[in-house]
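Please, structure for the following, as tokens.
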Amino acid sequence: MENNNEIIISVNNLSKIYRVYNKSIDRFKEIVFKQKLHKEFVALSDINLSLKKGDTLGILGENGAGKSTLLQLIAGTLTPSSGTILLNGRVLALLELGIGFHPDFTGKENIFFYGDMLGLPRSFIQSRYNEIVEFSELRDFIDRPIKTYSTGMQMRLAFSLVSSLDPDILIIDEALSVGDMHFQKKCIDRIMEFKQKGVTIIFCSHSTYQISILCDKVIWLKAGKIEMFGDTEKVIPAYEFYQLEKDRKNIERANILQLNEEHPAILREFQILNSMPLKRGDNIRFRILIECMNDRLPYHVTLSIKMDNGRGVYVTGSHLSGKPAITGKKREIIVTYPKAPIMGGIYYAVARIFDDKGLIVYHEKPMPPFEVKKDSMELGVCYF
């Protein structure tokens, strides 16, 4: 009988410190002259966590928070500066930089090459070969060198390979941000299968939505330290509130901007007129208030919407639709995103003012993230 209370990952007082040198020769000088010529960058500091069999952990944090460093340390591709990591089981990792494919080998050769690196019998890899290729949907390309593959194709093969080798611990770093939505859906489905089988999963993503449906626990990393660790339904709202407050402060700073030669036109206000929360199919109405140095300055206005992982979902603009340039010292513009087909989740909108050619940006203004209410477990960008 399986013991689901078994600790399968134990991280204790883990830190990673990098030495940063101004010049490469300083490394040599430091050794010879016994003089400190480096600065220290603390990527991770005093990380402690333990995961049981079947736990699914999401990792959140801004760029540079230490997410990838933590995953690489657990995966064994980096050595800690201090602390210990104890693992109980086979660890397979799909990191941001892939899994170490040889660029001159074909896709097929790399499948067996990866198995050799893991010390797996060739007969075992052969027994999984067709499954790997079929899942990747790359059979027509499998005999071509990896260096001819796009980034998305390489990640397809890497995920298919890693997820077909019966891991006890599966580590995934931003892999689902690459590739089309059809394949992302397949990946999510397979991760859910692993979850049901009791595989311990560590999943890093900028998408709070993906983490919310995949993970039971979440670590929020901030400047190399654990800001919060706990149940998903507690950590994600705290992280999203932090992002909202940060964006609000940035917007307040932007509102101080004054008209001048560098900024002859300024976005004074940018807001959603709908009541919250939004739902799929709403006519989302945006209000944009513009102020110019004079009433003769011609300009264009654009509005773009992105998901929380940075993927664009909607863009519109006066010059994109062939309309003439706008003039007026003060103008209020209402932009409607009709019957918005976007999925539930957190979205970001940015308004921009361009010159009359649509080339020079006079000013851009973000608004705080807005939420479209989730009404299903479907994945993707939009409904058709």
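The helical segments are 25-33, 67-75, 107-117, 122-136, 151-162, 181-197, 208-214, 232-255. DSSP finds eight helices and 17 strands in the chain.
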